[in-house]
Amino acid sequence: MTDIPEVIRQIPLFSELNPQQLDQVCRVAVSRTYQARETIFNEGDAGAGFYVVLEGRVKIYKLSPEGKEQILHIFGPGNPFGEVPVFSGDNFPAHAQMIQTGHLLFFPRKAIFRLIGENPGLALQMLAVLSRRLREFTRQIEYLSLKEVPARLASYLVFLTREQRSQDLVTLTISKGQLASILGTIPETLSRIFSRLSGDGLIAVAGREIKILSYEGLANLAETGKKEG
Prior knowledge:
single chain, alpha+beta, Jelly Rolls, Arc Repressor Mutant, subunit A, 2 domains, four-stranded antiparallel beta sheet, 9 helices, 11 strands, globular
């Protein structure tokens, strides 16, 4: 079983808490199990609390009037989600669904507000987390509106090198169909772009493993939208 106090301690929001404060947070956390494809909340639902992924992966997405799905984020173990509406008093602005069977921690809004009242420093840490999330949204808007698909894919792969701390080999933690949705394209186009980057000598693809052949070239494509040379 996952060591819940250790997971909570590693969440940026709670990382600076002393043992007593951490114990208080653990006491209000509710462990929940969700099956693959089970809905966590829908767009428009009241923000009654926020979540942290213990095991599995969660996708946050919007639906167009025609029913087309646009994935906004995919969160894995240790990642919080749903914080903004909890603190703004708004409803959830998107849908959340489990990609695979897993476990979440749920932090009720009223209980967290009580803890913030007792620990003002917690509010500052929450501001830092929300500011980082805002930067992520800003970067995603840039991907979808200002960059062509090859540059979007290159940007995502560069992001993975930082997240996985390797400039030589990265592993896709989501399906290529889900990646296509995140990048605002379709799987067929994404496959062609993977082939193009491979042909340009930037990457080599073997299933979900992506070997980075030229990190500098990939970073340049991500930044400028053009391949070197």
